[in-house]
Amino acid sequence: MKNKNQMNQKTFLPELEAVRKIQNYVSGCLPADYQGPEKLGQIELIVEEVVINIVNYAFSDVKNGFITVGVGGEASLEIEIRDNGKQFNPLEMADPDVDAPLDEREPGGLGIFFVRQLSAEVTYSREAENNVLRLVL
Q1: Domains of the chain
Q2: pTM score of the predicted model
Q3: Taking residues 4-30, what's their average pLDDT?
Q4: Are 105 and 60 in contact (CB under 8 A)?
Q5: How far apart are CA 36 and CA 134, in angstroms?
């Protein structure tokens, strides 16, 4: 694995078929201590939640869309997911009330909640017309 400034990166088309491709790409970049079934499952869940949201919501008004995924880090694993879809900061979403009965809950919001719970740090920025979500695990 390369250092933080030299992340392994690959670009994908924003389509549902890319979810599994991106999960496989990320898994192939992981160091050995992240290859265990529990950590790998958490990372795959994080990637799935983020990418599905991007594919479903970011590109309704955007042509020539892309999702670029970077994997790197030294002391900790970092995953960067960048897209050129419409601006959206998922961290501005309120956490869902997971203690409320199912029939009283608002739909949606669980994906980013899980991403926050499973990551040590999650940050969002808008850089050069791109959404950039950085995850530290």
Answers
A1: 7-136 (3.30.565.10)
A2: 0.86
A3: 92
A4: no
A5: 22
